[in-house]
Design brief:
Oligomer: single chain
Strand content: under 5%
Helix content: 55-70%
Distance between the termini: 63 Å
Radius of gyration: 19 Å
Number of strands: 0
CATH topology of the largest domain: Rna Polymerase Sigma Factor, Chain: A
Number of domains: 2
Order of helices and strands: HHHHHHHHH
Shape: globular
Structural class: mainly alpha
Length: 198
């Protein structure tokens, strides 16, 4: 085995290095997680300026908590628990309503929900139309179902990790995800049926 090829460094190892003073470890963590974490907030709150503020708050919280960090779960679970708590605080303080749809954060969520036939739209216009419809349906979901769906599909967390992030048991997380997927699929199917009948 070639010892010159370095093994990839885990998030947990990077966070421990950062806790011990390695600023480059923080940069690596930020680079790995900035896109998914920002999209998490962007899909859960509007306007985008609020999502940006919450995003920055989580990284600030991570910096403040670094000296107390211990590996008790995957780093991503810990990070999204910080994000979930910040989101809950935001909703409590602002009595915020679910966001309105005003743009697509450029991620093909339709592929995560749709049946195989929907995965190959006939044109770029059709792909964008499906993506926009999915975003509308996503924002119509109850916040708990929307969050579980995003944690699973956008961020790749397991049901166990989602349960830890959201503070519910695994069965509740599974149930929320199942309901979210059923509602999204039904909404996409209903929209397609209406489009074809016009």
């Amino acid at each position: 085995m070639d010892k010159s090829v370095a093994e990839p460094v885990t998030d947990e190892e990077l966070m421990l290095r950062y806790r011990n003073g390695d600023a480059r470890a923080f940069e690596a963590l930020y680079t790995r997680h900035k896109g998914p974490l920002y999209r998490y907030f962007l899909r859960l709150v509007r306007p985008a300026a609020v999502a940006e503020e919450l995003f920055q708050d989580v990284w600030t919280g991570l910096i403040r908590a670094r000296e107390r960090y211990e590996v008790r779960a995957k780093f991503s679970t810990w990070l999204y628990r910080l994000a979930h708590n910040r989101l809950v605080d935001h909703y409590r303080r602002s009595a915020a309503q679910p966001p309105t749809v005003d743009d697509d954060p450029e991620q093909p969520l339709a592929e995560q929900v749709a049946d195989a036939a929907w995965r190959e739209p006939e044109s770029e216009f059709e792909r964008r139309r499906l993506g926009q419809r999915l975003i509308e349906l996503l924002h119509a979901l109850p916040p708990e179902q929307r969050e579980v769906f995003l944690l699973r599909e956008e961020n790749g967390l397991s049901l166990e990790e989602i349960a830890a992030v959201t503070g519910v048991n695994v069965e509740a997380a599974k149930s929320r995800l199942r309901y979210a997927l059923a509602k999204l699929r039904a909404g996409l199917s209903a929209g397609e049926t209406m489009r074809k009948s016009n």
